[in-house]
Write a structure and sequence with these properties.
single chain; 139 residues; mainly alpha; Four Helix Bundle (Hemerythrin (Met), subunit A); 5 helices
């Protein structure tokens, strides 16, 4: 298996953006911070989708070619999970297309964004603690 440091670095960048977003998630301040939040969400989306695409073409592809059935199954499960996350991210973005929408529904925006960030953090943790060490052990 390839060195996964690049993917770990991307995870750290994504989590850094998520932290910035989470720091701004206060319903009373969404209107004031709507422009910054929208820009951070765009940045988070670009980084996350690019990461998922590269990971899918590199990490998962290599694992799916393994002769070891449990490895292929693990890769399929992770790839499917990440595909579902990408779909939920796109749906989330459709719900919050502009700063005006954020400002009109600050409480809902904060709740949905907290849930999205928590899901992203869980998935990254799952990869960092499960998939990546397993992949490196199969090298």
């Amino acid at each position: 298996m390839k060195n996964l440091d690049r993917f770990r670095h991307e995870h750290a960048e994504i989590l850094g953006i998520a932290y910035e977003i989470r720091h701004l998630l206060q319903p009373d301040h969404v209107s004031k911070n709507a422009g910054m939040l929208h820009a951070l969400l765009a940045q988070l989306t670009r980084k996350t989708l690019a990461h998922l695409l590269h990971e899918d073409r590199s990490v998962y592809q290599e694992l799916l070619l393994s002769e070891h059935e449990p490895t292929r199954m693990l890769a399929r499960n992770h790839a499917q999970s990440m595909g579902c996350f990408a779909d939920s991210l796109r749906g989330y973005l459709n719900d919050w297309p502009d700063t005006q929408t954020l400002a009109r529904k600050p409480k809902q925006f904060c709740e949905q964004t907290q849930a999205l960030v928590a899901d992203l953090e869980r998935r990254i943790d799952h990869e960092e603690r499960g998939l990546y060490p397993f992949s490196e052990g199969r090298a």
